[in-house]
Design brief:
The protein has 189 residues and is α+β, with helices and mostly antiparallel strands. The protein has one domain. It is built from 3 helices and 8 strands; from the N terminus they run H-E-E-E-E-E-E-E-E-H-H. The strands form 2 sheets. The protein has a 6-stranded antiparallel sheet with strand order 3-2-1-6-7-8. The chain is globular and about 45 Å long.
Length: 189
């Protein structure tokens, strides 16, 4: 039997929207095309890593490859599972907006772990795509980025305070690009 570490206490301070944009090396709208897991030995340690491949539908910031593979600590190989609290989970065929940094160099290649991942969902009634945070809450404005990714009465109430109409992917991308432009203008001054 192989003993793998069980990572429990992952503490992440939610980034502000400005921090999320500033820390990202690349921001993409991509669709999950493949997921693979592997038990690896690195030095004297063994761990499971999950690789998630995305077909890039739209590069938002930066110049990503047409297929982007991100590496995350944790996953399942056979009967072995390595859980990492706060690590986002992906499903093939899902579309995501991702804020990527240090891929392959840290346990999660997203800014603020799950804070750097936003799912594209389709409203079954209207057929309109909209954004969801990793905790399932609809993203109605970019100020919600800095809220905790927990569920519960207070958090759910705070999520609703920002507005009632969820951001579409196009609206969220426009906000990201506008924030990046503001940051670039501030640097050049």
């Amino acid at each position: 039997m192989i003993a793998l570490p069980f990572c429990r206490a992952t503490t992440i301070i939610p980034p502000t929207f400005s921090e999320l944009v500033a820390k990202a090396e690349t921001v993409v709208l991509g669709e999950v095309t493949a997921i693979s897991t592997e038990l690896q030995t690195r030095g004297s340690e063994r761990a499971i890593f999950t690789r998630v491949t995305f077909a890039i539908r739209e590069p938002v910031l930066g110049v990503p490859p047409a297929l982007l593979t991100l590496e995350f600590l944790g996953g399942t190989v056979g009967e072995l599972t390595m859980d990492v609290d706060g690590m986002p989970a992906f499903a093939i065929g899902r579309s995501e907006i991702l804020f990527v940094q240090n891929n392959g160099l840290q346990i999660c290649p997203l800014v603020g772990m799950a804070h750097g991942r936003y799912r594209v969902e389709r409203d079954p009634v209207t057929g309109v795509d909209f954004m969801r945070r990793d905790n399932g809450a609809a993203l109605t404005n970019v100020a919600q980025v800095s809220l905790p990714l927990t569920r519960g009465t207070l958090t759910d109430t705070l999520q609703r305070l920002g507005g009632t109409v969820p951001l579409t992917p196009a609206a969220f991308i426009a906000e990201i690009r506008a924030e990046h432009a503001r940051q670039q203008t501030a640097v050049s001054r």
